[in-house]
Task: structure prediction
Amino acid sequence: MKRDSRLSGVLHVLLHMAEHRAPMTSEQLAKAMQTNPVVIRRILGGLRDAGFVHSEKGHGGGWTIARDLAAITMRDVYDAIGRPKLMAMGNRTEAPGCLVEQAVNAALDPAFRDAEALLLARFAAVTLAELAADFQARMAARPPHIKDHHHG
Amino acid sequence: MKRDSRLSGVLHVLLHMAEHRAPMTSEQLAKAMQTNPVVIRRILGGLRDAGFVHSEKGHGGGWTIARDLAAITMRDVYDAIGRPKLMAMGNRTEAPGCLVEQAVNAALDPAFRDAEALLLARFAAVTLAELAADFQARMAARPPHIKDHHHG
DNA sequence: TTTCATGTAACTTTAAATAGTGCGTGATGA
DNA sequence: TCATCACGCACTATTTAAAGTTACATGAAA
Result:
């Protein structure tokens, strides 16, 4: 299994956009994330459709955040990127005819459902504004001669 | 990402063994699970090392359960198969230098940790004896003219 | 009208789980 | 003894989904 890092990735991108108070191009964001511009456009596509970010073509174009950061939760972002799977395990077969399988699924399913519900509730409890504030705090805690937060 | 179904699978196998009160060969179990005998041996290997099942070579050999079903929890089984990943998502990078990434990870990590803890607690609360009882209840609830629970 | 930037589709690459093959080892029993 | 059975293990192959890449169309700005 390759681990899905879209949620982590898009949150990262959004915070970078929030720092940079002007439109950022896919290329700039891709450089910061060490990935490909198309990956950025894909990942931000869902957020555009959901109205969280805005994109502009042509000169001076790029991506901007379309809402107050305090009005966007991690849950919103998760939903906007298409609610990817949260759990790494699943049932061997859905809708099994085998009664043994049914008994196993009946034991596992509610546990997974509750864990997912917990996770989503946690996501809903954190806004991007809080993430940005945490980032600012980390900046402030840094040795004073370091002036920026660029990547290697 | 391919979804891990080892836990579901091994629970299934164990219940089948519990039903059948004589050694079952990898081949028999593989037929019931519609998979390959080697897959069964692999999946049961960890449980043998943990002392939950016993394997015997040669004529009349095969797999047997080595403990009281009431003394084995789903958590024990999860541990015995090597504690596979529970969460389908991860951080883009561990140990990031980027402060933005650090802020994102700091928000996501505790949520994932808590969800995993919840899941493991749920696993620990269910014994194989309970699963077997649930299976028996399902058998009893079936139309009476159906005499076995074999697979297609 | 040239340049820049997104939008999107198609394709390739990569990582991880799962499946399968072949052969070695040990136990049974004729 | 020796043929057969069943597990043990190393190795390879397949499959699936994410991530990356290429190519080109569209539309905005200079």
